[in-house]
Design goal:
The structure holds two protein chains of two kinds. Chain A has helices at about 5-15, 25-55, 60-65, 75-85, 90-100, 105-120, 120-130, 135-155, 165-170, 180-215, 225, 235-240, 250-260, 265-280, 280-285, 295-315. Chain A is built from 16 helices and no strands. Chain A is an all-alpha fold. By secondary structure, chain B is α+β, with helices and mostly antiparallel strands. In chain B, about 40% of the residues lie in helices and about 25% in strands. Chain B is built from three helices and four strands, in the order βαβαββα. Chain B has a four-stranded mixed beta sheet, with helices on one face. In chain B, helix 1 (about 10-25) packs across helix 3 (about 70-75). Chain B is globular. Classes of the chains: A mainly alpha, B alpha+beta. The interface of A and B includes residues 63, 86, 176 and 187 of A.
Amino acid sequence: MFSFLEQFADLIVKQWLGLDITTRLGGALHFFIYDTVKIFLLLSTIIYVVAIIRSWFPPEKTKRILSHEREYVGNVMAALLGIVTPFCSCSAVPLFIGFVESGVPLGVTFSFLISSPMVNEVALIMLWGMFGWRIALIYIGTGLAVAIVAGIVIGKLNMEKYVQDYVWEMRVGNAEIAEQSWPERLTYARGYTLGLLKKIWPYVVVGIGIGAFIHGYVPQDFLARWAGRDNPLAVPVAVALGVPLYSNAAGVIPIVQALTAKGMAIGTVLAFMMAVTALSLPEAIILGNVLKKPLLATFFGIVAIAIVIVGYLFNALL
Amino acid sequence: MKIEVLGTGCAKCKTLYENVKKAVEESGASTEVVKVEDIPSIMKYGVMSTPALVIDGQVKFSGKVASVAEIMGML
């Protein structure tokens, strides 16, 4: 599918720069050019298409759908809607209040809050581009499973009293937001794509650059001892390292891909990626406005445990 | 006419506020643009993704930044 990019990278490295791609420098450069062009092609087209799809799923509509759902079915629906509903951690507070006030059960709300940032298009495109569609699909599947199970568990714990009291007293209006026309959807999608690309391109370029360097210069099996599947500590350490890297999925994936080639196990990679996207400190601080500490800690703890289990599972399976 | 920009203070909310001010200026209307940042007031409109634009109490859109030209079309 991307063979024309292979030829393009060959042309630049071999013909124009006169380098041998079996040398370290030539190999790293070839890798960098090929991957950068491929990733930006994928990012710009897929983000645009996803943004158009998302214009049919404003959170106000998602809320209406979920307010009629109970446990289990609700958790599954919430996790799935989390993929298509646009979400930004800066509107986590109005979103949370809107959900629970309209009668969406707490556990179902959490399934949405976990799946929405975790199963996002940028992480999926990067995984597809760097690891192939199989790993991207596994990531979607396990991400949804983590969101559904963690939401059900939180629901079972009956922690409603740990939602900040003012949330229950708030009066929420019913916004009548007009359906968008096609030109409006396309303008929205273009603005969304450009805005997102502008934000993430430096991370992508730097990430691919570091990845290319690792590919060319770090010895084979360098990480096998520490991050290989035989080290049981690798998964929890990877999850802990992922927390402060929030929102840098785009830059992290190329580096992780290069590390995989040097012996990092795939389950550890998946767990690390999920920690980067799903466990974010800024989001935890924002959610602290609506959740009391015990619920916030439970939410973080359950998601972290679920992610570690995913890591062990795939290290054992793949 | 009463124009309100709802937003909790994120970067996108500031951009929308600037765009709305420019649109009002260009249209020559002498309308005040109010920035609403407190959660209870935002929730009163039922808006769940910020930024959002409210004109005369009616939510025009939410969760996106509209261009100056687009906003002028709504005034």
